[in-house]
Amino acid sequence: MTIGVLATLTVAEGKNAEFEALFKQLVEQVNAQEEGCNFYQIHKSRTDGQVYKVLEQYTDQAAFEAHGKSDYFREIGRSLGPCMAGPPEIELVDGI
Questions:
Q1: Can you list the positions of beta strands (E) in the chain?
Q2: What is the pLDDT of residues 44-70, one digit of tens each?
Q3: How many whole angstroms separate alpha carbon 82 and alpha carbon 38?
Q4: The domain spanning residue 89 has which CATH number?
Q5: Which residues 6+ apart lie within 8 Å of 18 measured at CB?
Q6: Residue 69's domain spans which residues?
Q7: Which of 5, 10, 35, 54 is the S-S candidate for 85 at Cβ 3.0 to 4.6 Å?
Q8: How many domains does the chain have?
């Protein structure tokens, strides 16, 4: 069963360009290196310019867990911290 992730990220005012540049690096790394990730994409809200949605899908629980443990995820995640207006909202969903 696939595992989906819907993440809502709210970025601090004035940090959008920095956030987008860093997150694009993360998207490239995930899509290039994680065979168990079917897709990893970020989208910007049309109604609130500070809100981004990350859509992710993993082949199984092991692939999802490997994503969070990867060095590049942890490294870029630390760099993204100062760009954030608050903690991410994460929803896990199961494929049917």
A1: 3-10, 37-44, 51-58, 89-94
A2: 999 999 999 999 999 999 999 999 999
A3: 28
A4: 3.30.70.100
A5: 83
A6: 3-94
A7: 10
A8: 1
